[in-house]
Amino acid sequence: xxxxxxxxxxxxxxxxxxxxxxxxxxxxxxxxxxxxxxxxxxxxxxxxxxxxxxxxxxxxxxxxxxxxxxxxxxxxxxxxxxxxxxxxxxxxxxxxxxxxxxxxxxxxxxxxxxxxxxxxxxxxxxxxxxxxxxxxxxxx
Length: 140
Ligand SMILES: [Zn+2]
Prior knowledge:
Structural class: mainly beta
Helix content: under 10%
Strand content: 35-45%
Order of helices and strands: HEEEEEEEE
Bound molecules: zinc ion
Shape: globular
CATH class of the largest domain: Mainly Beta
Strand order of the largest sheet: 6-5-4-7-8
Distance between the termini: 38 Å
Number of domains: 2
Number of strands: 8
Largest sheet: 5 strands, antiparallel
C-alpha cells in the first residue's frame, strides 16, 4: 500500500485527536472509526473524542515484522481498554517487551510508523506508551 498526501490528510484528524465512533443504537464505541457499528451493524454513528489513557488488557510480542518495520522488532501489540471502556488494538512504544504486563497504565501517543521510500512521506499512527504517574494536583 502506498501513502498519498490525500490519504494522510484524510486520516490526520482522527489520529491526532483519537476520535472514535459511538453507536446511536447500542451505545458502544469503537476505534478506528468505521462506517458501520461492529457490534450491532447500525449505520447511525457519531464521532466521539476518546480518552487518551487506558489499561493493557492483554498483549503479544512480535518478533517477525514486515519490511519497513524491521528496526522496530521485537515490538509489542496490546489490547488497551481505554478509560471509557473502548478497546483499542495498537502497538506499545517506549517500553521493553519484558517490562510489559497486563493491568499496566498507558497513554496514547502519535508515532512515525512508516516511511515511503519513493516519496519520503511519513505516516503516523496510534500507539501507547507507559503512563507516567500524574503529578500532584494535575488536572484530568
Ligand atoms: Zn451498535
